[in-house]
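Example 5.3 — Membrane protein
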Amino acid sequence: MIALLIFLLFFLFLLLIVGTIVLIVLISKVNRLSERLERLETIPSPPRKPISSPSAPAPRPQAGEREMPPVVGPTPVPPPPKRQTPPLQRETPKKKEHPWLKEGWEWFIGGRLMNRIGALALILGFGFFLKYAFDRNWITESVRVWTGGALGIGLVLLGGRFRRKGMTVFAQGLVGAGLAIDYLAVYASFNFYHLIPQPAALFLMSLVTALAFQQALRHDSIAVSLLGWAGGFLTPFLLSTGEVNEVGLLSYMALLAAGLLLVSLKKEKWVPLPPLTLIGTYFIWLSVREISENTLLLFGFLTLYWGMFLAAEVRFGRNRQVTGRVLRQAAAAVHALMYFGGMFLLFHQDQQLAGWISLGVGLVYWLIQWKLPLEKGFATQMKLTALTFAGVAVPLWFSPFPTVALWGLGALALLWQGRRKSSPHLRIFASILYMVAFLRLLSQGEAWMAPVETHLPLWNLRALAFLLLAGAAAGGALLLRRIRGEAWSIIQGALQTGWVMLLFLWMTVETNDWFRQRLAEQPGSETALNFTHLMGLAGIWSLYALSLVWVGLKKRMYPLLFSGTGILFLSLVVGGIRGLMYQPLDAYLPLLNLRFLVLVLSAAVLLGVSFQLRHHESNAPWAKSIRVILPLLASLVLFELFTVETRDYFQQALERLPSGDTEASRSLFNMQQLAISGVWLLYSITLMAVGIRRRLRSLRILAMGLFGLTILKIFIFDLSFLDTLYRIFSFIGLGLILLAVSYIYQRYKDRFSLTG
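Solution (predicted structure tokens):
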């Protein structure tokens, strides 16, 4: 009874499938007949000839009249009436529809989408039915497998029949369902029931995959080809036994990839097939590499895969009308990256060999774009790929600093070649190479700390890398000056700023290492050397900033001007803060010390830059405001210099006094404060005189501010802490100077503007 029920269920299932197919066939025939009737109805009927009525006989001429001959000529036909269109009515452009939707949404959903869903449902339903039957042992294992295989082949044959009848989409669904069932049948025969060994299962899976591609070409269906792709790449996982046959698996992948590439060459419109094949092939190779130690075998198959895909890329690159060019070029770039990654995984311990392989691969790409007639965009990509492989070989051969130098020189050569041949691609590649070289150099922060024992100042690989890369960047900026375009102007400014900062870093690290050597040679002198170190850096930065500002203003290179201004301000901050306290005070010599030299130099640089800006106020409106600020900064630097020099002179004398001599200490303290107040007053009146003579209102205002600061010091500090005699001198001096200033303002008020 149960067997009869099972047979009835199976019969009803087949009847449902056959009935559905028959119903679909009848509906399609009715649709075709209705379409033919509609086309016949729309055909215009031929115009009928009008029936001409018998014309009346011409009147005979009367006696005495001559009979005129009839006029023979074409009968004038009135012109057809012109079709007038409304003046304000415009024709709306037709919307471009997707090729899948050219028959309409209804046909797409009912004819195509439901077909695909129906095929999937058929596959799942058959699978569930077989599992249900298998679990209850209704059918023997052999019969199950043969039934599945026969059903799959039957669906494929049935799909071919419907294709001949013109029902292509429906036929594709049947073929896809049949191929999937055949895959399941072979998989079940091997994995579930162990009816066939692994080689036989692999052979049958390969036959099904080949059948899938044959049917895909026959039906011109990318969906069927993707089904074959999935089945082909899933076969090694479905038939896995835990033991990997490296040669067999990699050979199978080579044959599968070759078949897929041949199919893609025949059907160029199937654009997704080569990228998917590329991903699947390299994924399988990586899986084998995880468990294999045969480096030579892995490298051989990796190079074989690379050659196969490269040949397909060249074939597509020679076709100037190939579809999906952007996707194909992106896949070619990913392919080159994947090959290099796999090669580096194999030979990362022998980087010299990896470098030679990379250079050889780059040479192959270069020869291809040089010798073969490729499409321009694809040839450019091949050239850039060759340059990339050659550039990657450099860090595999050399240490970081020589690598940076070679990259910089290579970028300069490419930029020159791109300018000579008017190739924006080479210029862009050179700009990227510059950026990579900069990042590579900046990432070597720990390598900047050279060994103290073996370091040679200004004569080492680090200095060579800095100088060569800076020179290459400067040369690149000069080459880009004659190329028009906002983007190239930005790159030119970046290169100018880059070489300026490289030289700045080079000066800084070389100075740091020189003082590190002095510290190693003179232990216990950290205080003096640290003070000299920072003040020396401030002085070097000031001179470098002055040269940058001068060149930037003369050549109108504003990146140099702005970079020099920033470095100048940095030197002022470092020198000003470090110069507040002279260390060690025992080594202090009034006016003959490094601090005095550096601060005077900084003030002179500020005044020199301000003087240079005078000639550029007409071309650069911002130069006038900067020219006003720089003398004020120079005045503040000199104010700090005179203050600390006066203070440290007496402070050194105070520290040399015996510890118990309070009277002498008190006297020196009073003299120190009196001298500071006097210096402030003299400096203030000097600024006032210069401001009046040069008609600089900013200096006069600064002088007034210093006068105010001096007044506060005298009335608050000197009045509270100084002795009576020193108070007298402070106040008398203050009064005389203030009266003198007032007299100057009153006496020479016509010689300067009080508001300008």
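Remark. The CA atoms of residues 674 and 730 lie 6 Å apart.
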